[in-house]
Amino acid sequence: MSRVARGRLVVFEGGEGAGKSTQLRRLSAALTATGVAHQVFREPGGTAAGDRIRELLLHGAEPLDPRTEAALFMASRAQLVAEKVKPALERGEHVLLDRFLLSSYAYQAKGRDLPIREVARANALATDGLVPDLTILLTIDPLEGLIRVKSRGSADRIEGADEDFHWRVAKAFKRFAESDWQEKHAECGPIEAVDAVGSEEDVEARVQRVLAARLPEVLAAGTRS
Predict the structure, then answer these.
(1) Distance, CA of 204 to CA of 10 (rounded, Å)
(2) Which helix (H) or strand (E) segment is 120 a member of?
(3) Nearest to 197 by CA among 21, 27, 18
(4) Strands of the 9-14 sheet, one edge to the other
(5) CA 40 centroid distance within chain
(6) How is the chain split into domains, by residue range?
(7) In which band, very low, low, confident or very high, does the pLDDT at 186 lie, cut at 50, 70 and 90?
(8) Long-range CB contacts for residues 172-178, cutoff 8 Å, separation at least 24
(9) Residue 83 to residues 42, 108, 124, Cα–Cα distance (Å)
(10) Cα gap 172→163, rounded to integer Å
């Protein structure tokens, strides 16, 4: 029996209101339509333990120290990688993931001003060596992104942080798209910035072009899901 080819891990990243969840959902629909086997997960969450952590992180009433926040994100990530992501990849299914390593670097290291080396060490423990095959970084002005968030209704704990926090996060994401930063952070894998301004269809077309160029096998019909 031939060995099943490993699936690919595609991560969607970006600041608040960039449209990550929307574009991930649209890509999932396109893959389903062409019979490409895949799984979709979000961070924090995706497992029973992770979903409880998500509720505490994003909707809990208690104030959280930045170190506590970072540790909870890492705990959710570790469980998701071990329980869901790695098994799916080993079955040959692609995985589409809403947030991963870059979010910790942007939100906890830069946004919360935690030591990036410590965040990197915690990430290494949580991911157990798993490196994304591609990260699609959706870029948008943070103020425009926050306007989108407010139009959806009440904001969660992260979305409700002050504007200075979101500017720090946006500056970090911009830095992550630069080639010299990526060369120094091989644990993050390749990163492609995609302009998130415009209609959902316009942004989807940009995402599809990036995938066709960088990971064409993700778009190819394979094992039926």
Answers:
(1) 15
(2) helix 116-127
(3) 18
(4) 38-42, 94-98, 9-14, 134-139, 191-195
(5) 11
(6) 9-219
(7) very high
(8) 172/105, 172/106, 172/109, 172/110, 172/111, 173/13, 173/14, 173/15, 173/102, 173/106, 173/137, 173/139, 174/139, 176/102, 176/105, 176/106, 176/137, 177/137, 177/139
(9) 13, 24, 17
(10) 14
Q: Give the DSSP per-residue string, 38-72.
A: EEEEESS-SSHHHHHHHIIIII-SS---HHHHHHH
Look up residue 123 and give its two tokens. Answer: 């990430």
Length of the chain as a residue count: 225
Q: What is the pLDDT of residues 97-106, one digit of tens each?
A: 999 999 999 9
CA-wise closest residue to 110 among 61, 168, 166 = 168
Q: Which residues lie below 8 Å from residue 68, measured CB to CB, with a gap of 6+?
A: none
Q: Which pLDDT band, with edges at 50, 70 and 90, does 223 fall under?
A: very low
User: What CATH number is given for 9-219 in this structure?
Assistant: 3.40.50.300
Instruction: Assign 12 to helix, strand or coil.
Output: strand
- Looking at the whole model, is its pTM more than 0.85? yes
Calculate mean pLDDT across residues 191-195: 97
